[in-house]
Amino acid sequence: MKAADFIQTLRHRVHAIVGGDNDHPDLLAQACQDAQLLIHESTYTQAILDKVGSGPMHSSAKIVAEFAQQQGLINLILTHFSPRHQDCAGQQAIADEVHQYYQGNFYLADDFDQFTLDATGQLSKVNPK
């Protein structure tokens, strides 16, 4: 008998899409097919984006949440928040907007946050606050 005959290597494939500054997440639709996770900037709430306009080419929480819901994505991590949304009230406004348009699992990422995506597609924060 050889040890190699009894060793089984387990691998699991992760399909994650990372979108940078992008005011049209629908451009990622094809890449998001069968994805387990979308990581995307959500610089503003929709109300602030409406005031700022399309010049900065950033997304709102609403735009990304609607896209993720439409694509059937089960996990979403939002990043790159405007300074006006980095305090507790601002983060809550982003989270509230996401809840209105997305039923999946989501996190608002802080710098240096770490996440894990297991073989079943369950996303969890490694360093929860």
Features:
elongated, four-stranded parallel beta sheet, 19% strand, 4 helices, 129 residues, single chain, Metallo-beta-lactamase, Chain A, alpha/beta
Can you walk through the features of this model?
It is built from four helices and six strands, in the order βαβααβαβββ. It has a single domain, classed as Metallo-beta-lactamase, Chain A, CATH 3.60.15.10. Helix 3 runs parallel beside helix 4. The longest helix is centred in the last third of the chain and has 14 residues. Strands 1-2-3-4 form a four-stranded parallel sheet, covered by helices on one side. The protein has a two-stranded antiparallel ribbon with strand order 5-6. It is α/β, with parallel strands linked by helices. The model has no long low-confidence stretch (mean pLDDT 92). Strand 1, helix 1 and strand 2 form a beta-alpha-beta unit.
The sequence of SSEs as H and E is EHEHHEHEEE
What distance separates the N and C termini? 49 Å
- Could you tell me the number of beta strands? 6
Q: State the CATH superfamily name.
A: Ribonuclease Z/Hydroxyacylglutathione hydrolase-like
> From the structure provided, what is the oligomeric state, counting identical versus distinct chains?
single chain
Question: Structural class of the secondary structure composition?
Answer: alpha/beta
Tally of distinct domains: 1
Relative helix content: 25-40%
Proportion of residues in extended strands:
15-25%
Topology:
Layout: E1 16-19, H1 29-32, E2 37-41, H2 46-52, H3 61-71, E3 75-79, H4 88-101, E4 105-108, E5 115-117, E6 123-125
Parallel strand pairs: 1-2, 2-3, 3-4
Antiparallel strand pairs: 5-6
Helix pairs in contact: 3-4
